[in-house]
């Protein structure tokens, strides 16, 4: 396969290169592209040097698959052009996620909806992926009525510059580029992505809309509060779920234990629960603190954590590519 990555110098782009290598992805040629300021620079990975090329040059190579991890504008401009020449685009931006004609894929959930005609496939937002991973198997079993989710999102979700802001604040510097409107070090911001007119943030809207699209059920009521916390990597979420049927906690453990991609870490007596610090470099979604919500009929609470750069972004995108190859759609 001839593979391209657009946005390779970003945090997700770098993880994509790592994962393609360590998952033994069938690569005949790997082309790396990034924004204008990186063109011509060397990108070194595993002692191998790659020259960063313009997207136009990548286009001329007619790759089989391109993983996009630049902004929405780049995806909107280039994805249709690649699709036209037969390249399959897996796009990590929000450009196509809510387009009714494009599939929004988490392989463990809706892989069967893909066909060989899907040439632009959307990768969901990081906070949505980990949420649907645990909601979907429970929805199949008990039917979900309502979800209340509060996120605790790490700064790598915003990118390198945000990490730089936190590090500078930690080291006591006063002059640095502010990505967040307030300090993030020693602080918590109830603010991920931009605010929209109804008082919610885009991150919250994404959580609500993308979850319904992936699970393919518009009747699930979802509300969200997305919060940025001074954590380097790994997003955490507190999730309250109300079901149509009475949930059985032991049965829910069994459901999660059987599910590929989910790891249960839940033993309060031994202080075992998922934490972002221990999610780094892992591809699974970790779930714990599973307990009844005694305040509400048929409800429970749980806590989930995943590496936002892995299952939240790069891993999910590469799993989609692997699936397409397995199904011989590419
Ligand atoms: C975040 N939505 O803000 C992101 C990353 N995709 O964490």
From TrEMBL:
<dbReference type="InterPro" id="IPR005986">
    <property type="entry name" value="Asp_semialdehyde_DH_beta"/>
</dbReference>
<comment type="similarity">
    <text>Belongs to the aspartate-semialdehyde dehydrogenase family.</text>
</comment>
<comment type="pathway">
    <text>Amino-acid biosynthesis; L-lysine biosynthesis via DAP pathway; (S)-tetrahydrodipicolinate from L-aspartate: step 2/4.</text>
</comment>
<feature type="active site" description="Acyl-thioester intermediate">
    <location>
        <position position="126"/>
    </location>
</feature>
<comment type="pathway">
    <text>Amino-acid biosynthesis; L-threonine biosynthesis; L-threonine from L-aspartate: step 2/5.</text>
</comment>
<feature type="binding site">
    <location>
        <begin position="9"/>
        <end position="12"/>
    </location>
    <ligand>
        <name>NADP(+)</name>
    </ligand>
</feature>
<dbReference type="Pfam" id="PF02774">
    <property type="entry name" value="Semialdhyde_dhC"/>
</dbReference>
<dbReference type="InterPro" id="IPR000534">
    <property type="entry name" value="Semialdehyde_DH_NAD-bd"/>
</dbReference>
<keyword id="KW-0560">Oxidoreductase</keyword>
<comment type="subunit">
    <text>Homodimer.</text>
</comment>
<keyword id="KW-0220">Diaminopimelate biosynthesis</keyword>
<keyword id="KW-0028">Amino-acid biosynthesis</keyword>
<feature type="binding site">
    <location>
        <begin position="37"/>
        <end position="38"/>
    </location>
    <ligand>
        <name>NADP(+)</name>
    </ligand>
</feature>
<feature type="binding site">
    <location>
        <position position="228"/>
    </location>
    <ligand>
        <name>substrate</name>
    </ligand>
</feature>
<keyword id="KW-0521">NADP</keyword>
<keyword id="KW-0486">Methionine biosynthesis</keyword>
<dbReference type="Pfam" id="PF01118">
    <property type="entry name" value="Semialdhyde_dh"/>
</dbReference>
<protein>
    <recommendedName>
        <fullName>Aspartate-semialdehyde dehydrogenase</fullName>
        <ecNumber>1.2.1.11</ecNumber>
    </recommendedName>
</protein>
<feature type="domain" description="Semialdehyde dehydrogenase NAD-binding">
    <location>
        <begin position="2"/>
        <end position="117"/>
    </location>
</feature>
<dbReference type="InterPro" id="IPR036291">
    <property type="entry name" value="NAD(P)-bd_dom_sf"/>
</dbReference>
<feature type="binding site">
    <location>
        <position position="308"/>
    </location>
    <ligand>
        <name>NADP(+)</name>
    </ligand>
</feature>
<dbReference type="InterPro" id="IPR012080">
    <property type="entry name" value="Asp_semialdehyde_DH"/>
</dbReference>
<dbReference type="InterPro" id="IPR012280">
    <property type="entry name" value="Semialdhyde_DH_dimer_dom"/>
</dbReference>
<comment type="function">
    <text>Catalyzes the NADPH-dependent formation of L-aspartate-semialdehyde (L-ASA) by the reductive dephosphorylation of L-aspartyl-4-phosphate.</text>
</comment>
<feature type="active site" description="Proton acceptor">
    <location>
        <position position="235"/>
    </location>
</feature>
<feature type="binding site">
    <location>
        <position position="153"/>
    </location>
    <ligand>
        <name>substrate</name>
    </ligand>
</feature>
<keyword id="KW-0457">Lysine biosynthesis</keyword>
<feature type="binding site">
    <location>
        <position position="97"/>
    </location>
    <ligand>
        <name>phosphate</name>
    </ligand>
</feature>
<keyword id="KW-0791">Threonine biosynthesis</keyword>
């Amino acid at each position: 396969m001839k593979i391209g990555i657009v946005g390779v110098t970003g945090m997700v782009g770098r993880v994509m290169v790592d994962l393609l290598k360590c998952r033994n992805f069938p690569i005949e040629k790997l082309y790396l592209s990034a924004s204008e300021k990186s063109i011509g620079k060397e990108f070194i990975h595993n002692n191998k040097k790659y020259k960063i090329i313009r997207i136009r040059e990548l286009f001329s190579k007619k790759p089989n698959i391109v993983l996009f991890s630049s902004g929405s504008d780049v995806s909107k401009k280039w994805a249709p052009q690649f699709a036209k020449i037969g390249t399959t685009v897996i796009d990590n931006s929000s450009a196509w996620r809510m387009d009714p004609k494009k599939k929004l894929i988490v392989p463990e959930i809706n892989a069967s909806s893909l066909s060989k005609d899907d040439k632009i496939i959307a990768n969901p937002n990081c906070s949505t992926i980990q949420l649907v991973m645990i909601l979907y198997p429970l929805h199949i079993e008990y039917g979900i009525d309502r979800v209340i989710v509060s996120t605790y999102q790490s700064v790598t979700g915003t990118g390198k510059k945000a990490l730089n802001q936190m590090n500078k604040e930690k080291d006591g510097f006063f002059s640095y580029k502010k990505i967040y409107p307030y300090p993030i070090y020693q602080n918590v911001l109830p603010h991920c992505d931009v605010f929209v007119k109804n008082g919610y943030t885009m991150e919250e809207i994404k959580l609500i809309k993308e979850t319904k699209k992936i699970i393919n059920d518009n009747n699930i009521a979802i509300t969200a509060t997305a919060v940025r916390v001074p954590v380097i990597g790994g997003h955490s979420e507190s999730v309250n779920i109300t079901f149509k049927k009475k949930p059985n906690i032991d049965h829910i453990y069994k459901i999660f234990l059987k599910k590929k991609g989910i790891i249960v870490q839940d033993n309060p007596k031994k202080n075992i629960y998922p934490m972002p610090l221990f999610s780094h470099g892992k591809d699974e979604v970790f779930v714990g603190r599973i307990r009844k919500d005694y305040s509400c009929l048929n409800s429970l609470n749980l806590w989930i954590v995943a590496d936002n750069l892995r299952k939240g972004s790069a891993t999910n995108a590469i799993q989609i590519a692997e699936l397409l190859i397995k199904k011989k759609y590419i």
